[in-house]
Amino acid sequence: xxxxxxxxxxxxxxxxxxxxxxxxxxxxxxxxxxxxxxxxxxxxxxxxxxxxxxxxxxxxxxxxxxxxxxxxxxxxxxxxxxxxxxxxxxxxxxxxxxxxxxxxxxxxxxxxxxxxxxxxxxxxxxxxxxxxxxxxxxxxxxxxxxxxxxxxxxxxxxxxxxxxxxxxxxxxxxxxxxxxxxxxxxxxxxxxxxxxxxxxxxxxxxxxxxxxxxxxxxxxxxxxxxxxxxxxxxxxxxxxxxxxxxxxxxxxxxxxxxxxxxxxxxxxxxxxxxxxxxxxxxxxxxxxxxxxxxxxxxxxxxxxxxxxxxxxxxxxxxxxxxxxxxxxxxxxxxxxxxxxxxxxxxxxxxxxxxxxxxxxxxxxxxxxxxxxxxxxxxxxxx
Length: 382
Fold this sequence. Notes:
The structure is a single chain. This protein is an alpha+beta fold and 382 residues long. The protein folds into four domains: 5-118, CATH 2.40.50.140; 133-209, CATH 2.40.50.140; 215-297, CATH 2.40.50.140; 301-378, CATH 2.40.50.140. It is built from nine helices and 20 strands. Strands 1-2-3-5-4 form a five-stranded mixed beta barrel. β7 and β8 form a beta hairpin. The longest helix has 19 residues, at 114-132. It is flat, with a radius of gyration of 27 Å.
């Protein structure tokens, strides 16, 4: 790493000391939520994780970030060039968020990326915009036969023609694709008021919709539905917390992740893709919003389980997930209980004794089928 001035030739643990002595300034303690997490976390920064730290020093082509208690991070080389306009404006003592691209390089630094961190935060912001139904003025960059290419916060996105308002939807004879394309092309360079309906960072997919019915129109649509109705709708988007389903033009509802299935659902995107038609049940209509359920159309496995299990029974179960409280164990499809971490010396001990995907014997220590609550005790601990 020759060429990054004085910092490159000295151990990373001396960087902060030299910077402070050269500048004559005392370290500044900046307490932020992420900073507190970093201070209390027993685990060092991992690849792809976001970290926050204070700028220790700047060199010609590098910025050094304090990551207590795990040492020093560095933004340099290509990652420095990718974010040089922002980095040039940062000062010693500023707090910045970056993404780990190498947990420890050959010189002992945690290599960081400012650009990738910005992207990760933007995808989080996009998912929040979906939940809040936030609308944006977005410029149409181009068009194809299926819709419009748009860009939001530097992320390329797509607005399907089916998601355009009626005044912008191309009305052409016989659905001629070439004529549709010519009509859509006319919207290039204009700004449309849209909301985000799908945000998938892994596939770098951002989908917009222009549709939003007026309050009077929406109330008229809602009046056709009642809680308890069983209807069919089209999946329009999937996010971490659930899926959106279009019941008809102008009306969408949300199936929260907890209402997708009786069994554990980790990622709704793996189960439902946009365009899929599915049956749903309306479980709530409130403040113009419709809550839907898929699992309400399926038999409740806890009802049958009530007649099969009781406190004190020894059962076999499969470990399906870890959480901060312990391990979640499935004893049959849709019926799961918690093995509390207090049964083990540490989280590491729990994970070594109860491996994901493996079956073990457990004793039921609490069973409340009406509340769908069950706790278990491991019968085979070494």
